[in-house]
Amino acid sequence: HTYLNMPDFKFLYKKSLDYLSRREHSSKEILAKLMQHSADNDLISSVIDRLVEQKYLSDSRYVEVYINSKKSRYGLQRIKYTLNDKVDNASDMIAELGLEISNEEQLATAVDLLTRKYRYVEYDLIDYNKCIRFLCYRGFNLSIAKDAFKEFKSQIKNDDM
């Protein structure tokens, strides 16, 4: 730890703590933010190592928080895709931590999204392709999107009766 007493180290360390005090960040995000303040990769690496060592920075904790915050609005595919930009080996980490979202949970989320989006639209005007595209864009696979549409339509039919 030769950097610990250097003013640049202290500045970057405090900057990192400031970022982390607001919300969880991945080590990749902290790296990108610190690169704006210093070009010394060794110094930045030592700051990140220190943060990890003191448990202020944890990629697994970040993945867990991220998934929990996004799973009510997005499907697993979209969450994984977005996480791959933010964390190395995100898919492996998700499986390792047991954070996979079950198909039943994804189906319930997809039906809920359709219900919120098409709450005030007449039954006959709801377009199948539009609904499927909407759900696929949100990161649900095609089979879940189709099942969600069927369940959504049956719910609407039952509500109208």
> Pairing-aware structural class of the strands and helices?
mainly alpha
Euclidean distance between termini CA atoms: 71 Å
Uncertain runs = none
Assembly annotation: single chain
> Care to count the β-strands?
0
| Arithmetic mean pLDDT | 88
Features:
single chain, 161 residues, mainly alpha, Arc Repressor Mutant, subunit A, 3 domains, 9 helices, 0% strand
Structure explained in plain terms:
With 161 residues, this protein is mostly helical. It has 3 domains: 7-57, Arc Repressor Mutant, subunit A, CATH 1.10.10; 60-97, no CATH class; 103-160. It has 9 helices and no strands.
Helix/strand layout:
Blueprint: H1 7-22, H2 27-35, H3 41-53, H4 59-70, H5 76-86, H6 90-97, H7 103-117, H8 128-137, H9 142-160
